[in-house]
Every structure is written in structure tokens, then in C-alpha cells.
Design a protein that fits this description.
- The structure holds 2 protein chains of 2 kinds.
- Chain A is of the alpha+beta class.
- Chain A is built from 15 helices and 23 strands.
- Helices cover 71% and strands 0% of the residues of chain B.
- Chain B contains 14 helices and no strands.
- The chains are: A alpha+beta, B mainly alpha.
Chain lengths: 513, 310
């Protein structure tokens, strides 16, 4: 251990300036830290390093600077980031049998860099997708033309547990149901972005996107010197504008609230973060009530105050015990009544999850052609639907090469990565698929892109994905970048924070100054 | 600005718990001074601290002897004692955690930091060696948090309920500190006459009131003058009278404040009518007991009116 350290010191050609612990000195020196020397991107597309081992153009400055940092300096920066996360109280909750654990947010200090011109294409593609998905949901709960025209088989929509008959006949303002969409993108071996899934129910993670930038600014300030990076911290005001555009009452400042299940929810940190960022009240079910004219009020020290827009961060099953789960103590009795009567806007609208289904996902390109008369700009991953006999036969024969996912789970639960699983697991999934084909889809195992990640004491490639957020109200807006999640375990493809994933700051950088 | 009833309640308790932690730390520091100054053999026991905080049943359930080690452990490091410093800070933190959206952004970071500090250090701070540094740190952090709230919070309902909680808790703790000097706790009238100035001086110090007392009253520390100063001085922010005026001021703009104002007036009247010069230690102690009940009434009325309205 000590031998290695001393090698780093003597090899580093840069003078150590000052004390390295808290004060972050400006390091202007060349030469490469040993941690990077053995970096090999492997057979995957690497976000920062070319197959020849050179930094990509957009990442050159950042990589050069990081490579010049001696290892103890990298460690100091990492420690500073961990401390900042602890002090800022950035945490998430993991549910376990032994109770819930509040864990510090796992963060890798090396940012991911994406050139702005690449991002512009992705952003346009996401806007297109969000428009089509909203057309689809609005159609399903009203005319159902897409089913009548046979573009999407009606049984996969109407038999889905995500289809809510209670929502039929409603058309929310601007025809939009999925106001906030978190789409998961991956970059495959060809360097292209693919949409892996669209989260339309209560997507989370956006606060971490903002805090990741904040941490990087604190611990690696000199990285920002030579870059023009699109800012991400105006998300809460964009969110507020979008939500305000949904208000049923025409007021200068509509009353917007964030409805949270409470402190024990894994995303509570984010609920509070967004409420604060919007200057909105963070309410729990018990804070709201619906009167006999179907208006929604919150209980305040000045008496009841009328609510116009609810940004709901509770699952629709728990939203209204009058309509959905009776045993829900988190919801507000009468909320659906109020929403149907048009007295309150709810984002995302109840029922929006009908398009958040891995089987429906397979039809999104068709939806884009059907509703928008456009060709899809973003790639989707080829998807085999186990409900189709031909697809199922193929899937069962090729389990070892495929990723199998349940249609209705999120958070990376219940999925099988064929090439990384044992034969016994293959057999288990074959059985599951045969028992309930509608609930399983399979996709080819993508060679997810990697990025340099600081693991223990060296920089190693780790797989990652990207979750941008799309806001759709009167207008549509996409976050510049999004939340990059990284699988910290070597070779792993599972990036979910509940399963040992970490995250990175994501930079959309404009061309050289 | 609207304020949810639930949020108002949490802010109120956050402020009470922070004040409780700070005042407990002050109390322990002051009491330690007394013990060190009093000649060996005649010093009062550490159990006095338990009595002041009305914690005898909880303490006796968990400890056999009320010696220095146990009492300090109970106050500084015992998480099962819901009034201990770590419990108070933890409760404050939980309340900030669920109200951080209405507080200045740094509030959560500061309270969380203090919580982490207390979690890490309290165990090792029971002994005399590290105790003082620990208590001082707690006091100064609480002051920082108060300063942050004072200088950054809009004077709206959030500020109002925080101030109500802080002043109510502070009034309560001031009377408890004065109760140390009252006869009942120190058992016999006149038993500590020789050390009276030391005792009252330490109590003033525990209330951060020594300097203000000297400037307003003079250098001579004497029981009646101290009680009068700490109860009724108009200009001193850690006097009971000052706290009650602050409470009245914050109740003013609130809706349906009649009942609460009535209780505050009752407390003010009681305070006005009490004459320290005419009271024995026993009477002083009885007065404090009765006054604390009035403060409890006030807290109950605030809860009924604004936190759990029907």
C-alpha cells in the first residue's frame, strides 16, 4: 500500500501546493496520475475515452485536469464530496426486512460529458415521444381510435392493471396526462442513445441531478473554468410554470402543492427539495380535504385554503380511498371526484401509467407514426412480447442472451440479465414466462456504454444510463442532460440506487469558447 | 404566506427542542460551576438537576444512584431519556427534516450537522474532561441556528410559530433554573447561605444573564435581586417577562387568538403580582410550580387552536 503511494508521489511531476484537505488548490500541471494509466474502455462505447485511449473532444479539458490530480488529491476530492452529501443531507431510503435505512447518496466525482449538439437531437426525440405518449393516453381514455384502427391490440391496453376505467371520459387541460416523464436512456456500442423505458407514474431522481451539479461545483471547481455547461438548477421554476399552466382557476399565482406520502418514502428528500424550489406547500394526505362542492382545500393556521394544482408524488393506488385502495391512510378522500369535476389539476394525471408498461413500450414507435405522422427520432430497443407466441418461443430458446423484465415493475426489481445469470435462474424465468406471458418482455442485452469511474484507488470503466426529465404542460421542455446512474459493481448493468448503483454529474457542454 | 397546521406544529416543536437542548447544556455548565466552587462535603447532589427537569420517575427507572456519572449520562448521552440533549436534537432534526421546505436552506444542514456531532460525541463527553467542550459546542450551534432563523426568515407564520415555541420553552427553562436556588430543592432554608452569592452567580451565568445583571443592577449578586431581574427585567431577552411579551406580540396577528392571549395575560398578571422580596424560598418554589402549569396551559391552547383545529 505504502509502496504504491510513494510511487505516485515521485511519479507526479506537479508540486503539491498547500495543504490538500479542505482548501482546494488550483493545480496546473501535466502528467498523468497512475490511477488512469491502466484505463481501458473495453468493447463498449466509452463516454469520455476513445477506443485509442484518448479523451473525447468535449471531455478533453476535464479528463486532462483529472488525470493531473495525484491520487491523494483524488481521494481528498472524493472525501469532500462524501462530506458535502452527508452535510447537505442528500439521502435515499432503502427498504429492507430489518427496517428502512437512510443511506447517503452514492456519487462518483468524475462527470459525464455530452456535447450539446448530440444532446439537441436526443432532446427533440424526447419531446416527440412525450407528445405521442400523451396523445395515446388521451385517446385511450376517450375515443380509443388507436385500438379501433388496430395499431395497438386493445387487450394489452384494456387488460393492463395500469388502465384505470375510472378515468374514462376525462380530458385534462392541454390534453396532457403525463406532465412529468422520466425516460431511461442508454447508449449502446454504436454510440447511439436508445430509450429503455418511459416512467410516467411518479418518476423520481431529478433532485439528485441538481444536487450532483452542486457537489461537483463544490469539490472540483476548477473543472468549470474551461467549459460552458448548460445549467440544471432552473428545473424547479420550470416545473412550477408547467404546473401553474394546468390550474383550473385563472389566477396570477395558482396554489400548487406537492403531495407526498411522508418522510418514510424513499424519495421524500426530493419531494421537499422540489416544494422548496417552487415555493409550494409540501402536503401530506391529512393536510388536504375535499368539500361537498368537490373543491380541494388544505388545512392551514389561517383556516382552509383552496388548492389548484397537486403535484402528486404518491402512487395512484393510494391517492383516494373513496376510489382506489380503501385502506390507504396516505390519500385524500374525494380527490378523484374533485379531479373529474375539473376543480383541481393533478400531475401526473391518474391513469397516465397506462402508457408506462413495458408491453405498451414496444408500440411507441407506431404511436409516433399514428398520432404525429412523423418517424421516431430516438431509437427504441427491440422488444419481444412473451404474449405473442412467436416471440415467446424465441425468448425461451434464447434466455441466456436476453434481458427479461416484468411488464409492471420498476426499480430494477424482478428482472433477469441472461448472460449474467445461472441456468437455474434461466429455468425459473422460463417457468414465470410460461405462467404469465403477458407480464414479461425480453430485450437483447445491450452493451451499455461506460465512463471512467473512481473505484477504490483507480479509475475504471463502469456501465451507466441516463434519465432526462420531460415536462409537458402547455409547452414541452427537456432537462439539459439528466440523472446519470452508474453501476458501481464491475461488469454490472443494474444502475438502480436501491441495488448498489451510484450517480454522476452530467454535463451538456457547448462547443469550445 | 399560507402555513399548514401540521407544519406550524413541527416548527413550534423544532424550536422548543432546540431551546431545550441549549438550555439543558447551559444548566449543566452552570451547575458544574457551583459544584466546583462549593467546599467539598457541603455541595448539593447532582440529583438536583433531575428534579429541575421533572425527570425523577424516568431517571429512577433506569439508574440506581444519582451520582455525577449517571446524571450526566442521563442528560448528555441517554437516548431513552426523551429530554436529553441527543433526544432533543434528534427530535428537532426530525421536525426540520419534515419542514425544510419552509426554512432557509442552511437550516437543515446546520441542524443535521449538530445531530451528527451529538451522535458521535455525546458518549465520550459524559466525563469531566470533554464535557465542557461538548456543551459549549451544543450551545454555540443552537445559537447559530437561531441566528440563521432570526436573520433569514421572513416575518411570516413560520417565524411566528418558531418564536412561540422558543419563547415558551425558554420561559419554562428560566423558571426551572431559578428553581435550583429555591429552598425546596436545596432542602433547608439557609443551609447554603455562605455560598448564596456563588450559587446565584452561577445560575445567572447559566442564563447568560451575568453581564446584563451587573450593568442593570450592580455587581452585588443577591437572591431577591437576581430573581427579580430574571423574572421581570423589561429589556433583557432571557427574562420571563421579555419572553411573555414576545409571545403576546406573535399571537397578535394570528387568527382566533383570543384564548391564547387570555392565558398569556394570566401568566403576565401572575408574574407582576409576585414579589421576590416578600417571598420565602418555599413560596418562590411554589410560585414557579404554578407558573409552569400556566405555561403548559398556554401550550395546550396553542395546540388546540392552530395545530389540531376541528
Amino acid at each position: 500500500m505504502f509502496v504504491v503511494l510513494s510511487v505516485v508521489h515521485s511519479a507526479g511531476s506537479c508540486p503539491v501546493i498547500g495543504v490538500l484537505s479542505n482548501v482546494i488548490p488550483l493545480l496546473k500541471c501535466n502528467g498523468m496520475n497512475k490511477s488512469w494509466k491502466s484505463y481501458q474502455a473495453g468493447d463498449f462505447f466509452d463516454e469520455l475515452i476513445t477506443p485509442k485511449g484518448q479523451p473525447r473532444v468535449a471531455a478533453r479539458q476535464a479528463v486532462k485536469l483529472l488525470q493531473s490530480l495525484p491520487r491523494d488529491e483524488m481521494d481528498a476530492r472524493r472525501a469532500a464530496a462524501e462530506l458535502a452529501i452527508k452535510e447537505m443531507g442528500i439521502s435515499f431510503t432503502v427498504y429492507t426486512e430489518g427496517g428502512n435505512i437512510d443511506r447517503a447518496w452514492p456519487f462518483d466525482i468524475i462527470p459525464r460529458v455530452i456535447p450539446a449538439k448530440d444532446w439537441a437531437e436526443v432532446s427533440t426525440g424526447l419531446t416527440q415521444r412525450s407528445r405521442a405518449l400523451n396523445c395515446f393516453i388521451d385517446d385511450i381514455y376517450n375515443a380509443q381510435n388507436i385500438l379501433k384502427d388496430g395499431v395497438v391490440p386493445s387487450e394489452i391496453v384494456l387488460d393492463s392493471p395500469n388502465y384505470r376505467p375510472e378515468c374514462a371520459g376525462i380530458s385534462p387541460r392541454h390534453g396532457v396526462w403525463a406532465h412529468i416523464c422520466g425516460s431511461d436512456l442508454v447508449r449502446a456500442g454504436d454510440g447511439k442513445f436508445y430509450v429503455l423505458e418511459d416512467n410516467l407514474r411518479v418518476p423520481s431522481g431529478v433532485s439528485y441531478m441538481i444536487e450532483n451539479r452542486e457537489i461537483t461545483k463544490r469539490v472540483l471547481p476548477e473543472l468549470f473554468e474551461n467549459y460552458s455547461i448548460l445549467p440544471v438548477d432552473d428545473y424547479p421554476s420550470r416545473l412550477y410554470q408547467m404546473l401553474a399552466s394546468l390550474s383550473p382557476r385563472d389566477r396570477r399565482r395558482p396554489c400548487v402543492v406537492v403531495l407526498t406520502p411522508g418522510i418514510y418514502n424513499s424519495a421524500y428528500f426530493e419531494h421537499a427539495f422540489l416544494a422548496q424550489g417552487m415555493g409550494a406547500e409540501l402536503v401530506e394526505g391529512g393536510d388536504l380535504f375535499v368539500d361537498d362542492t368537490d373543491k380541494v382545500y388544505m388545512r392551514t393556521v389561517d383556516g382552509p385554503v383552496r388548492v389548484d394544482v397537486i403535484y402528486r408524488r404518491i402512487d395512484e393506488d393510494f391517492m383516494d380511498p373513496e376510489v382506489f385502495r380503501e385502506d390507504s391512510a396516505l390519500g385524500v378522500p374525494g380527490l378523484m371526484r374533485a379531479w373529474k369535476a375539473g376543480k383541481v389539476a393533478i400531475a401526473n394525471a391518474p391513469g397516465a401509467g397506462v402508457a408506462d408498461d413495458k408491453v405498451v413500450y414496444a408500440y411507441v414507435p407506431d404511436m409516433i407514426r399514428y398520432y404525429l405522422k412523423e418517424e421516431p427520432l430516438l431509437e427504441s430497443v427491440p422488444t419481444y412480447l412473451c404474449m405473442r407466441e412467436k416471440d415467446r418461443e424465441y425468448v425461451l430458446k434464447n434466455l441466456k442472451d436476453l434481458v427479461v423484465k416484468p411488464a409492471n415493475e420498476s426499480g430494477g426489481y424482478g428482472l433477469m440479465v441472461g448472460p449474467h445469470s445461472t441456468k437455474a435462474v434461466h429455468r425459473k424465468f422460463a417457468k414465470l414466462i410460461k405462467e404469465d406471458p403477458r407480464n414479461y418482455i425480453a430485450q437483447p442485452t445491450l452493451s451499455l456504454s461506460t465512463a471512467p469511474t473512481y473505484i477504490d484507488d483507480s479509475v475504471q470503466p463502469r456501465h451507466l444510463d441516463l434519465r432526462p426529465f420531460i415536462l409537458q404542460g402547455k409547452d414541452c421542455w427537456v432537462t439539459p442532460g439528466g440523472l446519470t446512474r452508474v453501476a458501481l459493481v464491475k461488469g454490472s448493468l443494474v444502475v438502480n440506487s436501491s441495488q448498489g448503483g451510484g450517480s454522476k454529474d452530467t454535463w451538456i457542454v457547448e462547443g469550445k469558447k | 404566506m399560507t402555513m399548514l397546521s401540521r407544519v406550524a406544529e413541527r416548527l413550534y416543536w423544532m424550536a422548543r427542542y432546540l431551546e431545550r437542548a441549549e438550555d439543558t447544556a447551559r444548566l449543566v455548565m452552570a451547575y458544574q460551576h457551583i459544584i466546583m466552587d462549593i467546599p467539598k462535603g457541603s455541595e448539593p447532589g447532582w440529583d438536583v438537576l433531575i428534579s429541575i427537569l421533572d425527570a425523577n420517575p424516568v431517571f429512577n427507572e433506569r439508574y440506581r444512584a444519582a451520582n455525577e456519572q449517571n446524571v450526566l449520562k442521563f442528560l448528555i448521552a441517554d437516548r431513552d431519556n426523551f429530554s436529553s440533549i441527543p433526544s432533543s436534537i434528534k427530535a428537532a432534526r426530525e421536525n426540520v427534516r419534515t419542514t425544510r421546505d419552509v426554512l432557509p436552506e442552511e437550516a437543515w444542514e446546520m441542524v443535521n450537522e449538530l445531530h451528527l456531532y451529538v451522535e458521535e460525541m455525546s458518549e465520550g463527553s459524559v466525563g469531566r474532561r470533554n464535557r465542557h467542550a461538548f456543551l459549549e459546542h451544543v450551545v454555540s450551534r443552537c445559537q447559530m441556528i437561531n441566528g440563521l432563523l432570526m436573520s433569514n426568515l421572513s416575518r411570516d407564520h413560520s417565524y411566528r410559530f418558531i418564536k412561540l415555541g422558543r419563547l415558551l420553552e425558554r420561559s419554562d427553562m428560566i423558571t426551572r433554573v431559578i428553581d435550583v436556588g429555591a429552598g425546596d430543592i436545596l432542602e433547608r432554608e439557609g443551609a447554603f447561605e455562605a455560598i448564596d452569592p456563588l450559587l446565584w452567580g452561577a445560575l445567572l451565568q447559566g442564563l447568560s444573564a451575568m453581564g446584563a445583571y451587573r450593568r442593570a443592577v450592580g455587581p452585588l449578586v443577591e437572591k431577591n435581586a437576581v430573581v427579580d431581574f430574571v423574572f421581570s427585567e423589561q429589556m433583557f431577552p432571557r427574562s420571563v417577562r421579555f419572553c411573555l411579551s414576545g409571545i403576546r406580540e406573535e399571537l397578535g396577528p394570528l387568527r382566533s387568538n383570543k384564548n391564547a392571549l387570555r392565558v398569556v395575560e394570566r401568566a403576565r398578571r401572575k408574574l407582576r403580582r409576585f414579589d421576590p422580596n416578600a417571598a420565602t424560598r418555599e413560596e418562590l418554589h411554589r410560585f414557579i410550580d404554578g407558573f409552569q402549569l400556566t405555561l403548559n396551559d398556554l401550550s395546550a391552547v396553542i395546540t388546540d387552536t392552530w395545530f389540531e383545529p376541528e
